[in-house]
Amino acid sequence: MAAYDLQVVDEGATLADAHAVRRRVFIDEQGVPEAVEMDDRDDAATHVVAHEADDGAPVGTARVRTLDDETAKIERVAVLPDERGNGLGAQLMVRAEAVAREQGCRRVRLHAQVAVESFYQRLGYQTVSETFDQAGIEHVEMTKSL
After folding, report:
1. 17, 30, 35, 126 — which has fewest CB within 10 A?
2. Are residues 123 and 145 in contact, defined by beta-carbon separation less than 8 angstroms?
3. What's the rounded Cα separation, in Å, for the pair 73 and 45?
4. What is the mean pLDDT of residues 88-94?
5. Quick one: which of 82, 34, 42 has its CA closest to 62?
6. Residues β-bridged to residue 114
7. Pairing mode, if any, of strands 58-66 and 46-52?
8. Is 135's pLDDT higher than 80?
9. Would strands 58-66 and 71-79 be described as parallel, antiparallel, or unpaired?
């Protein structure tokens, strides 16, 4: 398994690091329009960024937004193609869930691309919706108690 350094933005990581990963995965690879991906919710979120341990390059990210007193939404989970399959996605989710707990949340929800629904199921998430289109990609809503 590759070694990664996971940091919350402002603890060494920067929002530019998170944006660089999101741009490569969502805009360049998946064709999500930039105006959709780079929304106005980044300032109201906590961002987790993973850097490759050897060279410090940003290779993964996730953001956490508090929706109400008990619920957080994990969004924009992205891992660069060369790093997929190395456990980084699971590490990002563990850290994002920890951020949600630190913010007092008891449950999390997310919109998962259907192609990776089983990844989230393995992490304990349950599908609670039918499929729906988001930015031209089929998604489902999933939840998990913390």
Report:
1. 35
2. no
3. 9
4. 96
5. 42
6. none
7. antiparallel
8. yes
9. antiparallel
Q: How far is CA 114 from CA 41, 102, 127, 137, in A?
A: 23, 29, 10, 8
Q: Convert the chain into a string of H (helix), E (strand) and C (coil).
A: CCCEEEEEECCCECHHHHHHHHHHHHHHHCCCCHHHHCCCCHHHCEEEEEEECCCCCEEEEEEEEECCCCEEEEEEEEECHHHCCCCHHHHHHHHHHHHHHHCCCCEEEEEEEHHHHHHHHHCCCEECCCCEEECCEEEEEEEEEC
Q: Which of 115, 99, 81 is nearest to 13 (CA)?
A: 99
Asked whether 80 and 25 are in contact (CB, 8 A), the reply is yes
Tokens coding 57: 């390059």
Q: Which among 47, 44, 39, 57 is positioned nearest to 15, based on CA atoms? A: 47
